[in-house]
Structure formats: C-alpha cells, structure tokens
Design brief:
Blueprint: H1 2-20, E1 26-32, E2 36-43, E3 46-54, H2 61-75, E4 82-87, E5 91-92, E6 97-101, E7 104-110, H3 112-120, E8 123-128, H4 129-140, E9 149-154, E10 158-164, E11 167-169, E12 183-184, E13 187-188, H5 189-192, H6 196-202, H7 206-214, H8 218-241, E14 246-250, H9 257-268, H10 274-278, E15 281-284, H11 290-297
Parallel strand pairs: 1-4, 4-8, 9-14, 14-15
Antiparallel strand pairs: 1-2, 2-3, 5-6, 6-7, 9-10, 10-11, 12-13
Length: about 300
C-alpha cells in the first residue's frame, strides 16, 4: 500500500508538471524485452502516451523490427525528431549495433539504429535497457539526488546499469553492469536474482510467484524471502566493486520489495565494512515505466 501511495503521488506530480511545461521537446522512448515491447511519448521526463505489445515469440529479426516500428508509430507525433531504444543485451552505442538480445534469438549483430532511422526518418540512439533504467532513475526518478548509483532490473533476467559522478558508465562495448553473469553457487547471479530463481528452485514462473505473493500465499512469500537472501549477496558484490550511494530496483519482482526487503538486509548486515552498508539506500523505482523515460534520456547524451 505504501508503494501504491508513492506511485499515485508520482502520477499526480507528473500531470501537474506536464501542464506547467508545455513547450518541452517530445521524444519517443522504447524498452524492448523478451516478452514485451513498450514505447512511450516522453516530454521532459514524463510519459504522455504509451503502448505495450508482445515481442514476437521466436520471431525473425524482421518480425521483431516490425513490432518495434508498430509500437513507435502508435505514440509518434509530427514534431518528434529523436527516438531512444533500450535492449536487453550488449550494444555498440556509437553505431547502434545490437550484438545480441537475451530471450530474442534472432537479434544478433542487428544494425538497429540504421534500420530504424531509415524506416522512421528520425535520429535513433540505442543502449542497454538496464543502462536506460539507471539513467531514468538518475535523471527523473527517485534516484535523482544520488551522484553514484547502480540500477538493477529484476525480471526474466538480471540487468545492471552504473552511474558514476552523475554520468552513465557503460564500459567497453556496453559491457559494464552485466552483473547477472557473475559466477554464483552452481550457476550465476542471474539464476538466483531474477525470475529464473523461482523456476530453478520451485518450478514456478516468476509471474505466478508474483501473483501468489500478492495474494498472501505463505509458500510464495517464503520464496521471496529466500530470493532476498540471494539479492543481498548480489548487492554485496556491488558494494565491494562500487560502494554506491544507492541501488535502485526495477522490474516486476521489485513490486514485492516489501516482502524480500528484510531478508535482503539481513544478508547485507554481514558485509564487513559497516559504514558502506549504513550509508547505502536501496529502493524500488517509483515510476513503473522509468525504462522508457531512461531510453528517452539517451538523446540528452548525459553519459560520457
């Protein structure tokens, strides 16, 4: 209920700010996922109109691109000049080439920037989706006051975006922040800190676990508490590497933050450098569509 209160409050502020700033440039932000493609018309960090459509399951590259274009055209208006796109994979951000996309097998070495610019006659910027999430929370979300933060997307996989001294750090080939592939236990962090955990350990999808936990199912709640222990271990690694001021959480799993928060902190309190953890803020992003806003932030070139 507390989370819902802040979301509703955010939406009220959103509408008031849109009315107060009618002349801001409008940009399209796109968030591509393994199951959904989301697009939004964004104005000064606020979403004016949005749509979600299914990502074609096992579709060809052309199928997926057609779906992306369909979503963009739904929110497109005449004065939009630029489009920002976030994809769950590695990207050559200078050329807009997508090396590969998790859960979309056909998306390998796709010159997405070039293709979309030809199809839509607009400037296109492409980056990793978790980087877009981190940018969105930093520039327009509840991570705005932190100079150094890490954004974690907890969904079908585990993504990470890193902001250092107010700028996105993407590393060589956009490879920084790929925390999910760090070895952990009998696999990697993604196996235990994403929807994969529920399937691997309990034979249930993350979506079903989410629904059951929301209904108060005791077994599902226990699953989330165990999830919190593993997420705490992942954040320990982040603290060792970056010691950020904040870790911002996104993705469907973050909606149950109140269920796994306590077990997560119980694990984190065993971190050897107490002052690092004492000064660490961990919270879910209050804007459920912050990845779309973050994709639109790519146009502002806030990263270096």
């Amino acid at each position: 209920m507390i989370f819902k209160y802040y979301v509703d409050k955010y939406r009220l502020v959103l509408m008031n700010e849109i009315k107060a700033n009618p002349n801001a440039d409008r940009i399209i932000g796109v968030d591509i996922g393994g199951t959904k493609i989301s697009a939004g018309l964004v104005k000064d960090g606020k979403i004016l109109n949005s749509i979600k459509i299914e990502t074609p399951p096992n579709g060809t590259m052309e199928d997926v691109i057609n779906s992306i274009v369909t979503a963009i055209n739904f929110v497109n208006v005449d004065d939009v000049k630029s489009i920002g796109v976030g994809v769950p994979g590695l990207v050559n951000t200078a050329k807009g080439i997508v090396y590969d996309v998790h859960n979309i097998p056909s998306f390998v070495d796709v010159p997405l920037k070039e293709i979309l610019e030809k199809r839509l006659d607009k400037t296109v910027f492409v980056n990793n989706d978790a980087n877009c999430f981190a940018l969105g929370t930093k520039n327009y979300g509840n991570g705005k006051k932190y100079k150094n933060l890490v954004g974690l997307t907890l969904g079908t996989g585990l993504g990470g975006g890193i902001v250092i001294n107010n700028c996105l750090y993407e590393g060589v080939g956009c490879g920084a922040g790929e925390l999910g592939f760090i070895p952990y236990r009998d696999g990697n962090l993604e196996n235990y800190c994403s929807g994969q955990f529920f399937k691997k350990e309990y034979g249930i999808s993350g979506e079903d676990a989410n629904i059951l936990a929301g209904k108060g199912d005791l077994q599902a709640i226990e699953m989330y508490k165990q999830f919190g222990n593993h997420l705490g271990e992942a954040i320990k690694i982040i603290a060792y590497a970056f010691a950020p001021e904040a870790v911002m959480l996104g993705g469907a799993i973050s909606r149950n933050f109140n269920i796994f928060e306590e077990s997560m902190w119980n694990t984190l309190r065993r971190f050897p450098y107490k002052h690092v953890i004492d000064d660490l803020h961990i919270m879910p992003a209050i804007n459920p569509d912050i990845a779309i806003v973050g994709a639109a932030c790519l146009i502002k070139a806030v990263h270096k």
